[in-house]
Design brief:
about 170 residues; mainly alpha; 9 helices; about 60% helix
Length: about 170
Amino acid sequence: TRVCSYCLLLARAMGIDDRQELAAIAEGALLHDVGKLFVAEDIVEKNYRVNSQERELMRAHPAQGFLRLATRSDIQWGTLMMVYQHHERADGCGFPVGLEGMEIHPWARICAVANTYDSMMRDVSLHDPQALKKVDENLSLLSGRALDEEMTECWLKIFKNDPPQA
């Protein structure tokens, strides 16, 4: 739900104000990690301490999620692209297929910023200004490389002085 909230905040800041489009973005954000349901829980919970085989299983979750949802007629294409492409990277080093820049659906680029921010904030105390500053610095380093530059810069401007609560 945090990623969903962050996606909606960023989408609105990027000028998206159509209610149906925002609803589809919210749906994609809520479903973005649905493919993790098909990965063993102990692997998902390991987070970054996975071996190469476990890493490959984790890297398959966007495709797994897409495959499970693609046959549904009630899910928009952009929503499916959020599920499938939220780990693609602006520089082409992401997965599942290594798309880059504008090849990545805009909603998936929104989700990537929101998901990355959420991951970075998971272990940060909101009362620690140094830790919050480090999150901003790390996002800045990813801007234009891993994350869409315009969207990342927009995100950083939104919460420069008032980060969202986890």
